[in-house]
Amino acid sequence: MRIEAAELRILELPLRFRFETSFGVQTKRTILLLRLFGEGLEGLGEGVMERLPLYREETVEGTRYLLQEAFLPRVLGQDLPNPEALAQALSPFRGNPMAKALLEMAFYDLFAKGLGRPLWQVLGGVRREVEVGVSLGIQSTVEATLRVVERHLQEGYRRIKLKIKPGWDHEVLRAVREAFPEATLTADANSAYRLSDLPRLRRLDELGLDYLEQPLGYDDLLDHARLQRELATPICLDESLTSAEKARKAIELGSGRVFNVKPARLGGHGESLKVHALAQSAGIPLWMGGMLEAGVGRAHNLHLSTLPGFTKPGDVSSASRYWEEDLIDEALEAKEGLMPVPEGPGIGVHLKLALVDRITLWKGYVSAS
Ligand code: OSB
Ligand code: MG
User: Which atom of ligand 1 is nearest to the CA of 292?
Assistant: First the structure.
């Protein structure tokens, strides 16, 4: 497959809710959208980096620069037999897994369309629908949290994840646990604690959490391993897993017993497949994370989460939760906690170009010279 041209856009899409985490408040997404053109087909990718480096280090503007000035010129016009060849072409560039993922995932879509097959099949998926949970931001009160948890349980979501931070943790989680004793409950700290918070974190052990997500530093593996030895609750790594190499080290150190896979954080689908293989042989359950993706990113995540190692509900909830109107024609909606995977070649979704045009802040082209 030869990529003949690429279009990059920066879009702004307002969220239907205020999403508060330990690292800030989000009310909209600034989305770097990539369209690759080749052999009469189009491959789509959605960046998950934010305007500012509050979750990981990469940013929208930094990625735009890298793609336009370095990554796209390196691969355009080349004969790329498969996505591994594209990853190989980008490998001299260090780090920047989100930027690499944006390009690699768009190419996976193009590649699968070239084969005329749905992406889930090309990746080795084994199901047509996936189990989903929901990630709920920090609310203003415990009562408000109970209401929002109840509503999402009624909608059928199979796992409730609450965002926590020091001072907003044990009390709210205990109230939810008491009100919904049977619910599968988890907590995500987004790196808000330090090892010195051990006494506070130990109190969470009594709540029967399915796991505690990324309590410590955003790049840490060692302190997580120390903490895991002190806690009964399994630790789940999110921010710290930015490559298969990091996953290998996390397994060797014992930094966590569960992994959150976000292909866009790990460097793409290929890197996620490597993490999947490592986790399978180490007996580590996986689940599909989310970055408040719009339709393109959500579709990519759905396809990857059909692999057998994804045994816990993902953060891939209904698009209508997030957006008045999604970027794509297809409605990605969960029913009773199950989300169908889009049909058709590649990721199986189509851009609403008129909407995309309306919310485009910036647009640029790169073509093979
Ligand atoms: O830590 O999983 C996270 C959203 C943005 C950045 C980081 C995270 C999240 C979520 C939301 O938890 C998951 C989703 O609904 O997409
Ligand atoms: Mg997380």
Answer: 16
Nearest Cα to Cα of residue 247 among 210, 282, 208, 217: 282
Residues 128, 305: Cα–Cα separation, whole Å: 10
CA of 315 to the centre of ligand 2 (A): 9
* CA-derived radius of gyration, the chain: 20
When pLDDT is averaged across residues 26-42 and rounded to a whole number, the result is 98
pLDDT confidence band for 369 (50 / 70 / 90)? confident
In three-state form (DSSP H/G/I as H, E/B as E, the rest C), the secondary structure along 183-250 is CCEEEECCCCCCHHHHHHHHHHHHHCCCCEECCCCCCCCHHHHHHHHHCCCCEEECCCCCCHHHHHHH
pLDDT per position as a tens digit, 136-178: 999 999 999 999 999 999 999 999 999 999 999 999 999 999 9
Mutate to test the pocket of ligand 1, among 135, 159, 161, 238 (most ligand atoms within 8 A of CB): 135
Residues with CB under 6 A from ligand 1: 55, 135, 188, 190, 238, 289-292, 315, 317
CA of 262 to the centre of ligand 1 (A): 10
Nearest residue to 263 via CA among 347, 159, 356: 347
The whole-number average pLDDT for the span 262-267 is 98
Catalytic residue among 113, 161, 246, 262: 262
Mean pLDDT, residues 255-265 taken together: 98
Q: For residues 130 and 287, is the Cβ–Cβ distance under 8 A?
A: no
Which atom of ligand 1 is nearest to 26's Cα? 5
For residue 67, give the amino acid letter: L
Mutate to test the pocket of ligand 1, among 292, 300, 316, 322 (most ligand atoms within 8 A of CB): 292
- Dist CA 12 CA 362 (whole Å): 10
> 163 an active-site residue?
yes
Percent of the chain with pLDDT strictly greater than 70: 100
